[in-house]
């Protein structure tokens, strides 16, 4: 395929293998070969292995699917180590939003059965701890049976509409954040303590930055919250106001979820950057497990309100 405007067959299959024996040896090379503004599905099959590369799917390349060919997502890994504060070859200092291993700016993107990892250890290099595994911006983005590993800021669901089904997401601080309309359905959300000797060390799962005019933000539906943290140390989340934007009014709902004992009894961090969580749209509904609670700081939806939070309503498709 040539990287020019044009049409492919309705469904086009290409293959990637790190050790050769396929159409391409890198995932990015297969993406680069997709014609601009293609309107047919392009399925890039990625054979098992570790692909040490950063990936970008530009906005003019919709309808791309990355499909891991292994028996499980851990068999096919896209991994890179980049972090905020890192010095680039040209001398520039890397910002948080330029650290992602996989960058998606296209509509109708899908990834399935693979792992996306930022392997930065949070210590070496002298930079910040922010190191994204995923940067996702676009409509009808889907992840099925995928693994996301990082520390701070693992998954940036920036905007658009995004579905994460049967995925595993790991991190410690604000590791699912952004302003997208995003549904996390039947996922395992795993909080990690990188220093187990510090038993008081906790973290934050979600940091929604939903625009005030946008009705829906993050919906965690039938997810399981796990972690290696001590009991009562991890917040469900806190509202993020990018650049202290007062028009960010985070919306996040945990519904029908199993909450481990690491979840704090007070649920949500009371403030972030001077903005109060009580003024954001942070709710729960019919959660269970040792980390579940209902009180003034952990506002519960009524059954009638909960009916508004469905996958189709949040996503719009």
Task: Provide structural commentary.
By secondary structure, the protein is mainly β. It is 5% helix and 37% strand. It is built from three helices and 25 strands. The chain has a 15-stranded parallel β-sheet that branches. An eight-stranded parallel β-sheet has the order 3-6-9-11-13-16-19-22, with no helix packed on it. Strand 23 (271-272) and strand 24 (275-276) form a beta hairpin. The chain is globular, with a radius of gyration of 19 Å. The mean pLDDT is 94.
In short:
By secondary structure, this protein is mostly beta strands. It is built from three helices and 25 strands. It has a 15-stranded parallel sheet that branches.
Structural class estimated from helices and strands: mainly beta
Uncertain parts: none
Number of helices: 3
N-to-C SSE series?
EHEEEEEEEEEEEEEEEEEEEEEEEEHH
Coarse shape = globular
**Fraction of helical residues:** under 10%
Q: What is the C-alpha radius of gyration, as a whole number of Å?
A: 19 Å
The end-to-end span amounts to 31 Å
Overall pLDDT level: 94
Number-wise, the strands total 25
Biggest sheet, in brief?
Answer: 15 strands, parallel
Strand content: 35-45%
């Amino acid at each position: 395929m040539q990287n020019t405007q044009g049409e492919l067959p309705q469904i086009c299959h290409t293959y990637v293998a790190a050790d050769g024996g396929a159409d391409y040896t890198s995932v990015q090379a297969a993406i680069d070969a997709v014609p601009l503004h293609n309107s047919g599905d392009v399925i890039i099959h990625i054979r098992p292995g570790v692909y040490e590369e950063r990936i970008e799917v530009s906005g003019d390349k919709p309808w791309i699917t990355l499909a891991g060919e292994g028996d499980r997502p851990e068999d096919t890994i896209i991994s890179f180590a980049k972090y905020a504060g890192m010095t680039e070859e040209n001398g520039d200092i890397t910002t948080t939003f330029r650290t992602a291993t996989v960058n998606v700016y296209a509509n109708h993107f899908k990834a399935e059965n693979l792992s996306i990892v930022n392997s930065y250890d949070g210590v070496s290099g002298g930079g910040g701890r922010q190191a994204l595994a995923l940067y996702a911006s676009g409509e009808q983005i889907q992840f099925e049976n995928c693994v996301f590993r990082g520390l701070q800021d693992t998954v940036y669901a920036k905007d658009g509409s995004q579905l994460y089904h049967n995925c595993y997401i790991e991190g410690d601080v604000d590791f699912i954040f952004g302003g997208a309309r995003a549904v996390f359905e039947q996922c395992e959300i795993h909080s990690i303590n990188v220093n187990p000797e510090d038993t008081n060390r906790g973290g934050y799962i979600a940091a929604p930055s939903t625009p005030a005019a946008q009705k829906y933000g993050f919906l965690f539906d039938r997810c399981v919250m796990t972690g290696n943290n001590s009991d009562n140390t991890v917040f469900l989340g806190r509202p993020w106001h990018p650049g202290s934007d007062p028009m960010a009014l985070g919306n996040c709902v945990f519904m029908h979820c199993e909450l481990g004992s690491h979840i704090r009894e007070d649920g949500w961090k009371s403030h972030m950057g001077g903005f109060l969580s009580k003024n954001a749209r942070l709710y729960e509904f019919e959660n269970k497990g040792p980390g579940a609670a209902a009180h003034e700081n952990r506002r519960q939806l009524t059954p009638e309100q909960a009916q508004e939070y469905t996958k189709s309503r949040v996503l719009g498709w």
